[in-house]
Design goal:
Layout (H helix, E strand, L loop, with lengths): L1 H11 L3 E6 L8 E3 L3 E2 L5 H14 L6 E3 L2 H7 L7 H11 L4 E11 L2 E2 L4 E3 L2 E10 L5 E10 L10 H6 L7 H13 L12
Parallel strand pairs: 2-4, 2-5, 3-5
Antiparallel strand pairs: 1-9, 5-8, 6-7, 8-9
């Protein structure tokens, strides 16, 4: 699978996208935790990215997206491990899984949609965690800095899909969240469940 994913990334261009599925979930509600920033310089990007994730799940009744404030309030008395925090929050919200995002890079393009001095760049990872035992049932990552078609002709299909425009990082994130999460059966875009 890894070799196939690497080949796909090479053919698509400079985008690295992987997903690992351990087993599909057949049960209830999923709690989406606030996006965790890899460092403090990404705090603003993490807040924007949390909004993008929230928008993605807006019509899905099986998913509850919580804010940082809600996370703190739900786990105020919890001082245990990350798994214990997940157990506490999911129990209070009557769910059995938590979706956790880590944002590693969130850089906006410099320029406009037809001429960028510095392109949008985004890297994130996610894990769908079973609250009972901490088992990761699905995980994935995305890592891309948009490149000009002239830098890599193999990105032609992606350039066509994007309308030959330089994306904003928010546009890239919206596209990446949709595509990556849809690779996990429990997270696939089946709005309104």
């Amino acid at each position: 699978m890894l070799a196939k994913t690497a080949l796909t990334a090479l053919l698509i261009g400079l985008s690295l996208m992987t997903t690992t599925i351990v087993s599909a979930s057949d049960s209830g509600k999923i709690v989406v935790m606030p996006v965790e920033a890899a460092d403090t310089s990404l705090a603003e990007g993490a807040a924007i990215f949390t909004g993008i994730v929230s928008d993605h799940f807006e019509d899905n009744r099986a998913v509850v997206v919580i804010s940082s404030e809600e996370k703190e309030a739900l786990a105020a008395e919890d001082t245990g491990s990350r798994l214990q925090l997940i157990k506490t929050i999911t129990a209070k919200l009557a769910s059995d899984q938590a979706l956790i995002f880590s944002l590693n890079r969130y850089r906006e393009r410099v320029g406009d949609q037809y001429s960028a001095e510095d392109p949008a760049s985004l890297a994130f990872e996610f894990k769908l965690v079973n609250a009972e035992d901490g088992r990761v049932t699905c995980s994935g990552r995305f890592d891309e800095t948009q490149k000009a078609l002239t830098e890599n002709i193999l990105t032609l299909p992606l350039a066509i899909k994007r309308g030959f425009k330089w994306m904003t990082v928010k546009e890239m994130a919206t596209e990446a969240v949709r595509e990556r999460l849809n690779t996990c059966p429990a997270l696939a875009d089946n709005s309104g469940q």
